[in-house]
Design goal:
alpha/beta; Rossmann fold; 7-stranded mixed β-sheet; globular
Length: 200
Amino acid sequence: METNQKKADVQDFDRRSATYENSRRQGYIFDRVQRIVLDLAKNGKKPESILDVGCGTGRLLRKAKENWPDARLIGVDPAEGMIQQATQLLPDAEFHVAMAESLPLPDASVDLVFSTLSFHHWSNQAKGVSEIARVLHSQGRFLLADIMLPFGFSHVFRHFKRNNPAKTREMFVKAGLNVEFQQRQWRWSRILVVTGGKKL
């Protein structure tokens, strides 16, 4: 069951969905972070299916299509307005209104999963990571990039979950993912990037 805070968070994204693509943050923050995970993904096996968890308007999936034009593209986001925009901008992809903690996909059905700058919004991060592990193929990979709030800032941004590298690594391991790479990136180490592969 969603908390009032979670409902308010989703409603806020619904309200902003029509203008979300035009935000300055898209070019200044989101595009840069998405470039990091896309570059990391190019080092792996060519994916046949790609899932973006917290896909927003589908910006990352549109870039993924440029790299892997034949891949099946799937996006999930809890904000219906975002999914409506994503469907218009990338009509040949598959989109679902859904939370990370409850993915509407079969077990072992995806090769590559991205999540960029949405992890701090998840109600139950550990459950979300477990759901991603569930839908990954046996040799699938999960690439996560999210904001790292400076210590003490979490009381200012109360809807942000403060990401902790050690706890994030523990979530991956408990979900059955081998942590391949974990690093703070970008200016002042504000972005935590973690990649994990399904344990065989």
